[in-house]
Design goal:
The complex is a heterodimer. In chain A, strands 2, 4, 5, 6, 9, 10 and 11 form a seven-stranded mixed sheet that branches. In chain A, strands 1-3-8-7 form a four-stranded antiparallel sheet, with no helix packed on it. Chain A is mainly beta. Chain A is built from no helices and eleven strands. In chain B, a hairpin with a 5-residue loop joins strand 4 and strand 5. The chains are: A mainly beta, B mainly beta. The interface between A and B is medium-sized, with 22 and 25 residues.
């Protein structure tokens, strides 16, 4: 399967713990995006990378959130000191840089903070 | 005002009906527009891009009105498999520093 993959698919954690999610994009794609989606809402942009460079971060991304794409391939999203409000689906997507609107999404990681 | 606004629905229509969704966006500098489809508990998938002159893909027609900052999607001869949430998406920002802004989605159920 050459689509976007995410790991884990589900994560349950206690408030205050740190969590890390991984995304493996489509290998030919140079852009990688992270979104957060809550029930009844569309995905909200968090950040994106072109190759290994992080080009934009949303104001939603507090200093508890950090994302990396060290070699321009897979990416990680870490949330430190999780809060109940962080409970959501975290979606990763990738695209070619010349077609940023044509994004391919992974299945997401569902985070539940108890 | 929300950046991208859609009627959340739900829309319940019988199979074979024609249904239309609307969407407005607030950033007049936006350059590109899309409709994505999201099935229940699945990831969003690109349905179609929206071009200035309007475009059609089978039973689906997308229209853009830049003056009114308005996008529409028309589905003709609806099928049961069209049941999904339809997300209006706007590409936000200048060239080279872009992000997609999604509307909250319009839920559609096609009834047999």
């Amino acid at each position: 399967d050459t689509g976007v993959s995410q790991d884990p698919r589900h994560k349950i954690t206690k408030r205050g713990q740190n969590v890390t999610f991984r995304c493996d994009p489509i290998s030919e794609h140079n852009r990688l995006y992270w979104y957060r989606q809550t029930l009844g809402q569309g995905p909200e942009f968090l950040t994106y990378f072109q190759n290994e460079a992080q080009l934009e971060k949303s104001r939603l991304l507090s200093d508890r959130f950090s994302a990396e794409r060290p070699k321009g391939s897979f990416s990680t999203l870490e949330i430190q000191r999780t809060e109940q409000g962080d409970s959501a689906m975290y979606l990763c997507a990738s695209s070619f840089f010349w077609a940023p609107g044509e994004q391919y999404f992974g299945p997401g990681t569902r985070l539940t903070v108890t | 005002r929300k950046e991208v606004e859609q009627d959340p629905g739900p829309f319940n229509v019988p199979e074979g009906a024609t249904v239309a969704f609307n969407c407005t966006y607030s950033n007049s500098a936006s350059q590109s527009f899309f409709w994505y489809r999201q099935d229940c508990r699945k990831e969003p998938k690109l349905l179609m891009s929206v071009y200035s002159s309007g475009n059609e893909d089978g039973r689906f027609t997308a229209q853009l009105n830049r003056a009114s900052q308005y996008i529409s999607l028309l589905i003709r001869d609806s099928k049961l498999s069209d049941s999904a949430t339809y997300l209006c998406v706007v590409n936000w920002g200048i060239q080279g520093a872009q992000k997609l802004v999604f509307g909250q989605g319009t839920r559609l159920t096609i009834n047999p």
